[in-house]
Design a protein that fits this description.
There is one protein chain. The protein is mostly helical and about 160 residues long. Among the domains are: about 40 residues, no CATH class; about 70 residues, Arc Repressor Mutant, subunit A, CATH 1.10.10. Helix content is about 45%, strand content about 5%. Strand 2 and strand 3 form a beta hairpin. Helix 3 crosses helix 4 and helix 4 crosses helix 5. It is elongated, with a radius of gyration of 34 Å.
């Protein structure tokens, strides 16, 4: 006895259309629907959508009333990012600094504290390099030596 199941007999399908013929037919349907919608809009006396007028006339749900505007909350001061804090530190400093020195200075001044990462200096270094690459001369940092930065013209 075989464990294979029997296949259903093949049925004949209608011949398929070419892609361009199907595309043309779809475009024609879309155009007809668009013209019908435009004609319906022009026939309305008030120019409002049919759903809103149908709800009122058929006794269905009334349209929603507009919501009251939300009350604005007081804006909380955003935390200063490590890159912004480093820009402040390097602008105040008169000597070139490494990323590790900037991190220590930022924490000492209370500008920024690491959220618990193991290598914040590596993250800061990468962010500084990325800013220099993107902004060029307009960057807040300038490379002084390998791993050492000074304040740029924008700082």
């Amino acid at each position: 006895m075989s464990t294979k199941t029997k296949k259903a007999p093949k049925t004949r399908r209608a011949p398929t259309k070419s892609k361009s013929a199907a595309r043309a037919e779809g475009a024609a349907k879309t155009e007809r629907a668009r013209k019908a919608a435009l004609a319906e809009i022009q026939d309305r006396p008030d120019g409002k959508p049919a759903a809103a007028t149908a709800a009122k006339t058929k006794g269905g749900k009334a349209p929603k009333s507009p919501r009251a505007p939300k009350v604005q909350k007081e804006a909380k001061s955003k935390r200063v990012s490590a890159l912004d804090a480093a820009a402040q530190v390097i602008a105040a400093s008169d000597k070139p600094m490494r990323a590790k020195e900037m991190i220590a200075e930022m924490e000492a001044k209370g500008l920024w504290k690491s959220p618990g990462g193991k290598t914040p200096e590596a993250t800061l270094y990468a962010a500084i390099i990325r800013e220099i690459a993107v902004k060029g001369d307009k960057a807040r940092f300038k490379k002084h030596d390998r791993g050492v930065f000074v304040a740029g013209k924008a700082a």
